[in-house]
Amino acid sequence: MFKKIMRSYDYSLIAVYILLCLFGLVMIYSASMVMAVQKFGYESDHFYNKQMINIIIGFFAFICAAIFPYKAFKFNKVLKTLMLIIIGLLLAVHFIGSEVNNAQSWIDLGFMSIQPSEFAKLAIIIYLAAVYAKKQDYINTLNKGVAPPLIFLMFICGLVAIEPDFGTAGIIFIIGIIIICCSGISGKTFLKLGTMAAFLFLLISPVIFFLRDYIFTKERMGRLEAYVDPFLYAKDDGYHLVNSYLAIGGGGIQGLGLGQSIQKLGYLPESHTDFIMAVIAEELGVFGVAFVIVGLSYIVLRGIYIGVKCTDPFGTMLAIGISGMIGLQSFINLGGVSGLIPITGVPLPFVSYGGSSLLVLSLSMGLLVNVSMFVKYEGNHKHKKENDRPLSNSSKQKVYNFNS
Questions:
Q1: What is the rounded CA–CA span in Å between residue 173 and residue 404?
Q2: Gap between the Cα atoms of 299 and 302, Å rounded
Q3: Beta carbons of 176 and 124 less than 8 angstroms apart
Q4: What's the gap between Cα 113 and its chain centre?
Q5: Where are the domains of the chain?
C-alpha cells in the first residue's frame, strides 16, 4: 500500500515547486547582495541565508501537508481550531504587531516574523471548501447554503482591511469568490448574490464616503496617478515603476547576465521582493522570465486539472482555490511590475523573498499534491477493482467468441 501511495504522488508538480524555490533563491542573492551591504550594513549573503532557512522550513511544511490526509480538515473540530487560531492571530496583530509599510500586519516571534493575513488566505480556502462541501444538498439556498460562509469571509476580510491592508483583503475576497463559483451553485443563485452585494454596497456607501480620507489616502491615490503616467511622477510615486521599466528594457532578449543588473545597485527599491521579476528580466532576459511564467502557469493549470478530476467536492474546491490564489498573486505581481495594473506590493509566488509567503505557499502546494495523490490512488484502486471483478456469463461468451 505504501508503494502505491508513493507512486500516486504528482512528482512533476513537486519538481516545479522545488525548481521555482531554488531559482528564486539564486535570484534573491543576486538582487539583494548590493542592497544588503549599502542600505542595511549586512553581509552580502544576508537575505540569501535567511531565504535558505525559509525554504528549508517551507519544504518541511510541504512534506507534512503532503502526507497528512487533506480530508481531515473537513472535521468540525479541526476546522474550528484552525479558524480560531487565524482569528486570534488577526486580532493579536492589532495589539502586539509591528508596523511595516504603514500597515500593522506583522507579529515578531523573536526568531522570525509572521504575517497572519498570509495564513488567512489558505485558511479561508480550507474553510470555504469544507463548509460548501457539506452543503452540497442545499447549496442553492441563500439563507442556509451560500450566505453564512460568505458573511464569515467578509468578517475575515474586514479584520485584514483595518490593519490597514486593503490589497490582501481584496485578494482574500477574490479567492473566496473563486471557491463560491466552483462550489456547485447555479447561475441564478450567483445572480442573486450579485444583486445582494450591489444592495449592500449602496447601504455602506455613506460609511465609505465618511471614511474616504482613511481609505483613499494620499499614498494609495499616488499609486493610481503613477500607474496612469509613471514618468510624470518619476521622482516620487512613479519611481518604482520607472526603474522597473528601465530594468526590463535594459535586459532585452538575452539579458545582461546573472549578477549584472544595474537597477539593483540602489535604483530599484524592493528588488529582492516585489520587483524581483524586473531583476530577472534585466539579468536573464526573455528566457529567465519565461522560465518563471511557465513554471507558475504549470502549477495553476495542473491544480485546476486536479480539481476537475477529483470526485470529492472538498478536494475539488481546495485544489481550484489554491490554484486561484497562486494564479491571482502571480498576475498581480507581474501586472504591477510591468505596469499593467497599479502596484499593490504582492510578492511573486515561490520566487520573491519572504518567510510567511513561502511558508503558506509551501503548505498550499503540499495540500495540492495531497489531493492529487488521493485522486490518482483512488482512481487506480477503482480501476483495479473493476479489473478484478469476475466476468458475467455474457462477457465470458463475448471473450469466447472473440478467441474463436
A1: 64
A2: 5
A3: yes
A4: 19
A5: 2-384
In angstroms, the CA 263 to CA 146 distance is 49
User: Residues 366, 61: contact at Cβ < 8 Å?
Assistant: yes
The pLDDT tens digits for 2-14 are 677 788 888 999 9
**Three cell numbers at 386?**
473493476
Q: Are strands 98-100 and 113-114 parallel, antiparallel or unpaired?
A: unpaired
User: Which pLDDT tens digit goes with each residue over 178-222?
Assistant: 999 998 888 888 888 888 878 877 887 787 777 767 767 777 777
Q: Which H or E run includes 202?
A: helix 187-210
- Cα–Cα distance measured from residue 55 to residue 62, given in angstroms and rounded to the nearest whole number: 10
The residue with cell 512613479 is 238
DSSP 68: S
Residue 209 CB coordination number (10 Å) = 9
Q: By the 8 A CB rule, do 82 and 123 touch?
A: yes
How many other C-beta atoms are found inside a 10 Å radius of the C-beta of residue 151?
Answer: 9
Torsion of CA 159, 153, 133, 301, to 10 degrees: -90
Amino acid present at 186? S
The DSSP 8-state label assigned to residue 84 in this structure reads: H
